[in-house]
């Protein structure tokens, strides 16, 4: 669901049982506009000038609320690094070891149906690939060509 206006975001958050405070609206709006799988630090750096009273604790609390309501996913590709994704549809992620960016990658949801869970009931699946993105590979090629 793509909300653009403050009014649409307020109504969406209300429909999910979330009180639409200014901080929650701005954090959700940031996630809509920046589909970069941001960390709390990224969101804080972007919004603190606009909302001087904003704290990282507020961002963590808000994101955890969004995750609990199913409107944001928590991504943990590497130890100690938590990112957030507003796209909650089944898809995978690719993390570049050179630039650190995380990209969405398409995967077929049917890939998960053949996974044996030994009688357990899965609630969610995660699919991550770590490597070098095409932009970094192009930069490497250009650097080699110029040398």
Number of helices: 5
Outline the biggest β-sheet.
3 strands, mixed
Helix proportion: 25-40%
CATH superfamily of the largest domain: Winged helix-like DNA-binding domain superfamily/Winged helix DNA-binding domain
Order of SSEs, N→C? HHHHEEEEEH
CATH architectural arrangement of the largest domain: Orthogonal Bundle
- How many structurally independent domains? 2
Q: Give the radius of gyration.
A: 18 Å
Structural class: alpha+beta
Q: How many beta strands in the DSSP annotation?
A: 5
Using the coordinates above, name the CATH class of the largest domain.
Answer: Mainly Alpha
Which band does the percent of strand residues land in? 5-15%
CATH topology of the largest domain: Arc Repressor Mutant, subunit A
What does this structure look like?
The protein has two domains: 6-75, Orthogonal Bundle (Arc Repressor Mutant, subunit A); 89-146, 2-Layer Sandwich (Dna Ligase, domain 1), CATH 3.30.1490. 38% of the residues lie in helices and 13% in strands. It contains five helices and five strands; from the N terminus they run ααααβββββα. The protein has helices spanning 6-15, 22-33, 40-47, 56-68, 134-146; strands at residues 73-75, 83-85, 92-96, 102-105, 128-131. The strands form two sheets. Strands 4-3-5 form a three-stranded mixed beta sheet, with no helix packed on it. It has a two-stranded antiparallel ribbon with strand order 1-2. The radius of gyration is 18 Å and the shape is globular. The N and C termini lie far apart (48 Å).
